[in-house]
């Protein structure tokens, strides 16, 4: 059973398991989106960049963060909608073989009639706990007994 609006408190932190980003992830994401930017798909080109190798698309890692959060079942049957996204920042490249996990800190709660809006500051971290993505997201969730 997922969490209801009343189950959240400002300051709560919800963490996910890790997931390793693979070459197949990058290739499949490029094919799905049509984003074949050489930084992601050309090993020879990428060797000459500051990272020294291909990096994962920022949008891919963001998408992985959504999937990791979904797998926690935090709001599996209480979510009404993904309500918004603000201040998305890509702070460090994610390389093939990096393992990312997500920490979601509740920063605001707003009642909205028979539902509530939970605002998170979401950090995506690599295996060294270095921040790779930071964003603020909002979920509309059911209120208990409404």
Question: Can I get a quick summary?
Answer:
Helix content is 23%, strand content 37%. It is an alpha+beta fold and 146 residues long. It has one domain (5-142): Hotdog Thioesterase (Thiol Ester Dehydrase, Chain A), CATH 3.10.129.
Q: Could you characterize what this model shows?
A:
- Helix content is 23%, strand content 37%.
- The protein has a single domain, classed as Hotdog Thioesterase (Thiol Ester Dehydrase, Chain A), CATH 3.10.129.
- Strands 1, 2, 3, 4, 5 and 6 form a 6-stranded antiparallel sheet that branches.
- The protein contains 4 helices and 6 strands; from the N terminus they run ββααααββββ.
- The protein has 146 residues and is an alpha+beta fold.
- The chain starts with 12 loop residues before the first strand and ends with a strand.
Please supply descriptive tags for the structure shown above.
alpha+beta; single chain; Thiol Ester Dehydrase, Chain A; 4 helices; 6-stranded antiparallel sheet
Strand content: 35-45%
| Mean pLDDT, all residues | 96
CA(first)-CA(last) distance:
16 Å
Name of the CATH first level: Alpha Beta
Alpha carbon gyration radius? 17 Å
Percent helix: 10-25%
CATH topology value? Thiol Ester Dehydrase, Chain A
Tally the beta strands.
Answer: 6
Name given to the CATH homologous superfamily: Hotdog Thioesterase
Most strands sheet = 6 strands, antiparallel
- Basic shape: elongated
Low-confidence stretches: none
Please count the helical segments: 4
- The appropriate CATH architecture is Roll
Number of domains: 1
Instruction: Give the class from helix and strand content and strand pairing.
Output: alpha+beta
